[in-house]
Amino acid sequence: MNKLYLYKYGLTLLLLFFSFTLFAQKNVFTGKVVDERNLPLPGASILIKETNQSAISDKDGAFQIQNPNLKTLTLSISFVGYDAIEKVIRANQPLTVSLNPNARSLSDVVVVGYGTVKKSDLTGAVATISSKDLNPGPITNPLQQLAGKAAGVNVTQTGSEPGTAPSVRIRGITSLIGGNDPLVVVDGVQGNMDLLGQVPPSEIESVDVLKDASATAIYGSRGAPGVIIVTTKKNKAGTSSIEYTTNNSVDVIPRKLKELNADEWKQQAQLYSVPASTDHGANTDWYDLLTRTGFTQNHTLAFGGGANGFNYRASLAAILQNGTVIHSNYKNYIGRIQATQKALGDNLTLTMNLNSGINDANYSPTGIGRASFTSNLISNAYVARPTDPVYNADGSYYTDPNVFQYINPLAVANTVVNETKVDNLFGSLRADLKLFKGLTAGWFGSWRKVDGNSGYYLPVASTVQTAIDNQGIANINNYHNDEKLMDLSLNYKEDFGDHHVDAIAVYEEQGQTYNGNFAQAKGFVNDIATFNALQLGDLSKVTPGDITSYKNDRHLVSFLGRVNYSYLGRYLFTASFRRDGSSVFGANHKWGNFPSASVAWRIDQEPFMKDQEIFSNLKLRGGYGVTGNQQGLSPQSSLQLVGSAGVTYFGGSPISNFVVSQNANPDLRWETRKQTNIGIDFGFLKNRLNGTIDAYTATTSNLLFNYTVPQPPYPYPSIAANVGSILNKGLELTLSYQLIKTTNTLLTIGGNASLLKNKVLNLSGSINGVPLNTNYVSWGPTGVVTNAYLIKGQPIGTFYILQHSGKDAANAETVVDQNKDGIIDQGNQSPDRVIEGSAIPKYTYAFTPTFSYKNFDASMVWRGSGGNKIYNTLRSNLSYFENLGKANVLESAVPLGIYTSQYASDQWLESGAFLRWENISFGYRIKTERIKYISSLRVSLTGSNLLVITKYSGIDPELAADGGTSSGVDNGIYPRTRTFSIGLNVVLK
Amino acid sequence: MKKIITSILILCLGTQSCKKVNENVYDKYPAADFYASAKGADVALANVYSQIAGNWGVGYAGADNCWYDLNTMSSDEQVIPHRNTGDWQLDFAQLYLRQWLPSATIVGNTWTWLYKSVYTANLAVDQLQQSKADASKIAEAKVLRAFFYYLLIDDFGSVPFYTDNNITVDKIPQSSRAEVFNFIVKELTENVDLLSETKGGTYYGRFNKWAGYALLAKVYLNAEVYTGTAKWNECLAACNKIATAGYTLHPGAANAASPLGYQYYELFGDRCPDDETILAIYVTENIISRNIYALRSVNGPNGVAMFGFSGWNGTIVPHNFYNTFADNDIRKKQFLVGPQPGGVTYTLDVNSLDNPGAGPTEGIRDVKFYPVPPQDGSGESNDFPIYRYADILLMQAECNVRLGNAGAAKPFVDQVRQRAGLAALAANPTLNDVYNERGVELSWEGHRRQDMIRFNTFLLAHDFAPAVPSFRLLFPIPTSALNANTSLKQNPGY
């Protein structure tokens, strides 16, 4: 420190000396401020140390300073979001100053609901990921950019089917009935997760994840599962640029299940006396036939410009994927334009966003095949015998009539048409008007329309039994979603001495309308028209359910307000309140209140901390808030309605049948989540070590669920009601340490970890004084054995399961008779079951080092989770030798030698822990100073999903962990790919 | 500041907003208005009948995993063995071996279906009364309700009893089998005479007066089992009412156009003939109900060869039950044994029902419900007879034998035998003759378990199934029902 001062003052003295010795003359200092990509930074502030004067860079990033006395000046140059830099400039020697974006600047602005705050003033738990920290590589959905990047934000990608988005859970499972998907807000437009698919990944400026209730309560009834706020790139004021970004990858299947080949199958068939008639003499690798090398391309062309009070950015993005399963592909084109205009003496700001996208997907067929293997087509490749030929002698696809519901997987892949096209359009307009000092009025409106249509054709040639029975099945499905939002706001921001106040009041209305139709025809003479001409089908084959349509809507009306108050910049207080009315609730409970409050104390700003140098940042935070969930509940759930129920025979002819569709519940209401969060943000050693720790506890009460009701008198054994409660507790840690920090080199090691404890507190209670006894509710896909349950006092998705004990003389599996009554009861509450873990991970972690040296940079993500179990249904189905006559089995089944089993035992329950090398990326910024038209050029190489360390025997341990009913069960997934990609980013002058 | 602004906003927008959160319904009907119309009344009644139609896991008969499987697989007439090819779960073999547990899926499905049906019937009674519908329609709904309660006490014994849907569970007592029996008898005797006397036509598939009496006769026939007190005379009286309605046995003559070569099988064909059928379930595959019983029995290539759709290779007929059919009995044509079209040979016996299971082509198959179109791989369109005149004749025979009038019983039995191509009995029928004739005539029609219990053969051993203790005469109340209503008492022995 002292040395530096000495140097500075020494230098100054020296300069003074020179200036006195030489006669005073007009010295001109010119320079230019650019960003890390050599783009001009207009508006950068330049402080002249010697004179305390300041200057601002112009629209080209240029500045000019005149000083009669000095030959050299020391400039301190700063720009929001960039590390400030000091440079010495000599007169008449133009200087280009390149600023680097700062890692985690305390002055960063964090987007919270209905506004922004400085990161240093934040009182809630919010994770901010800026564009440079997002995962690189062949990204097809913005969520993939977040995997491993924020503690408590668990992104799960199940398989790599083109066009399928990952799921995300923020701080665990908050609801059982649905509505665990966070609210997505893209530049103010609110929507469900599918809204993210509408954002070009390369056009994201930053993502803010609101985690705790004090942050999310401002979104009230939609805030319970957390909020993901996406801010897209905007043109920097006063600049113009053209930018092209691309990423192209080769996608391969890193791991496949080891099954018997034809020779091994024959050997085992002989051993188990499988009739020779089941051996059809071929040698077929079905998996190989159904898979290929995939390709993913991502292109974005963006340009923007602006002048005084006007600014725009437009972009066109294309995401093109060819999947690793044949015939599966996906195309997503997104065009967007954003414009800002100021008027009324800069008092009125208009910002308009328009975004239009076209999705075009061919999905690999699902729900096809023999009863136990209906999850997807690729799993049918595992089932097919290796000794079955692909084709008959006449060239048609081979089938075996002796096997019930036999399908030829290649025939399905080649002949089934499964297209989905979705058109997305959303637009918004924001108007902000400064009324007088500190007071701004705002209007915001957004409208989003989604028009989807899918066509499906299952021809006779597919070998699927229902297709053969019906001579081909074709259907089309159209749906239209219409989501509108309008709000009016008043914002007041003012400093009164040491007091700072930032308050906002908002009135908001939302309307969502959903309608659609479905039509199906069967019995086609040939396959030429596929689903394009339903009238070509045999209309006498129309059955109930072949023609349907629907329409429903949902309205939300909200009043909300928030006050941020700070005193002396170190005592921070935030309170918010929201009152929501929603149409989906029962007549008695339309309205709900969602308050929150949080406080923070910036200890490092206290006078008594002035003289210490250990802490460069230290802040304590604490907050409490109430949020709701209504999005998980379908409209009309509270009413007793009469709906269609097919056809019945009455009065001598078939007539339309109607039923009372559900139990009415006028008391249906908000599911409320109360969350308390305490956190600490710290920085040591001049912020070389930064970190955040958060601890929270959240209880969802009035838990919406389909509770068990006694039958009689209820016509259905369950009713949607608010009775139980669940608890989530967790601890989150984020750390980053700049291990090496020199002028040219920066090595940061960072990571995050979170612990999550989840418990079903209660599922029983009463409705209208009638006791409900809900417990041991099967928590799995209907009709599939998963052994996962909701049990009071246990985590969601607890495995309650029979214990494998071996096999008997006939090689039939045996299980432990826990209560020793001689009977193995497989019922839900059987005393023969034991608790063996849960489907939901208890911990997740990520390690995210980054490195840069001059123009070279590298980054890596490792992430993992564990403490969960997976029920490997696929493995159990591929392990019984009694199936050998009609199917293949796994190599791992041979040593087990189980012929048959009447149980779904823990033999197939496995640990779901894994550590994945998510990606590694290398980038190099090529020097472009001498290239006439290029201001920046960066190339990168990325490898993704390079390694998975796990004991799990299935194809990939990352299965749906979303708390939905298929959590923790492996019915076979679309292959998860390993990708190698090359990326390019060019900015033209 | 904030408060003021908020208050202003509330004032401006509040009144308007409240309306905005009311629910709009576009694609369904509000229940209250719907049933008040005359058409609504028919719909309410039709909906009760729609409960009887069989579909996956629900209904009286036609599909699987509900009442029909529970009451036939637990007898000696049919079973689906687990196959050593890994096909078929053990649920059916466990029913046949009388090893069912309170957690068994089929037990639970039957309970759920029956109580949903009772609810629907209660709703129809209520809606019809409120809309002042025709007395015959109200009576019809009440008879339907009695039908479901009869099925409930037959399977489960003492059951929760209620007739008004607007009630909470604590107000629903578990009534004794005798109490519910008395309710059924009272409800039927009060209402059957109000029912229409029309046979077939607009009353096909509905409770007309004769179907009402057939139900009453069934209830009386089993009165001794339900209450300990026999009601043979009352049963006979109810049967005699039906006899006045002009029902006859459908001809049994050979006819190449009929399924399996005999007119007899038209009883189980596309439409149950009005001459003999008293109550039937109307079936059109994939539209109203379905009938899977032939398809479920035969194997894949055999099904394709015989009627163009792959069979499921499921149900077999136990060898000893098959043996109760005489070789010259046209009713034996329903069975498939030995070489069959499609290159399949069915054996008489199966080696194992559960572990390791039966071989793929083992066991006798049954195509009594020889498929009629429209059909596909998930069922056919054969209607299903619930009550038919042959059953009534055999009930008359049984009552007479039990009342000591074996002579009076003989013509009834002989009629049924002669229609099937058999000679009249040489001597007056014994109870065993009636029992055997019932088994042969009414096989696979859902009567066997009840008959076996009434004739005291249910607990005895038969092919593969060892003798079992008497608590197996009732099914257990399903675990799910006990859990949801803790005041329910499980049947003894479970």
What is the secondary structure topology, with strand pairs?
The complex is a heterodimer of chains A (989) and B (494).
Chain A: H1 2-21, E1 27-34, E2 45-48, E3 54-56, E4 62-67, E5 72-78, E6 85-90, E7 95-98, E8 109-112, E9 115-118, E10 126-130, E11 153-156, E12 167-170, E13 183-186, E14 189-191, E15 204-210, H2 213-216, E16 227-232, E17 241-252, H3 262-271, H4 286-290, E18 294-307, E19 310-322, E20 329-343, E21 348-362, H5 377-383, H6 409-415, E22 417-436, E23 439-458, H7 465-470, E24 473-496, E25 499-522, E26 547-567, E27 571-582, E28 591-602, E29 615-629, E30 641-650, E31 653-660, E32 671-684, E33 689-708, E34 718-741, E35 745-762, E36 765-767, E37 770-772, E38 777-778, E39 788-790, E40 798-802, E41 804-807, E42 813-815, E43 833-838, E44 843-847, E45 850-853, E46 856-866, E47 869-871, H8 873-877, H9 893-896, E48 909-911, E49 914-926, E50 934-950, E51 978-988
Parallel strand pairs in A: 1-7, 13-16
Antiparallel strand pairs in A: 1-4, 2-3, 2-5, 5-6, 8-9, 10-15, 11-12, 13-14, 15-16, 17-18, 17-51, 18-19, 19-20, 20-21, 21-22, 22-23, 23-24, 24-25, 25-26, 26-27, 27-28, 28-29, 29-32, 30-31, 32-33, 33-34, 34-35, 35-44, 35-45, 36-37, 38-39, 39-40, 40-43, 41-42, 44-46, 45-46, 46-49, 47-48, 49-50, 50-51
Helix pairs in contact in A: 5-6
Chain B: H1 2-20, E1 29-30, H2 31-36, H3 38-52, H4 67-73, H5 91-96, H6 105-130, H7 135-156, E2 159-160, E3 174-175, H8 177-191, H9 209-221, H10 223-227, H11 232-243, E4 277-281, H12 293-297, H13 300-307, H14 319-323, E5 335-336, E6 338-340, E7 344-346, E8 365-366, E9 384-388, H15 389-402, H16 406-419, H17 431-441, H18 448-454, H19 479-484
Antiparallel strand pairs in B: 2-3, 4-9, 5-8, 6-7
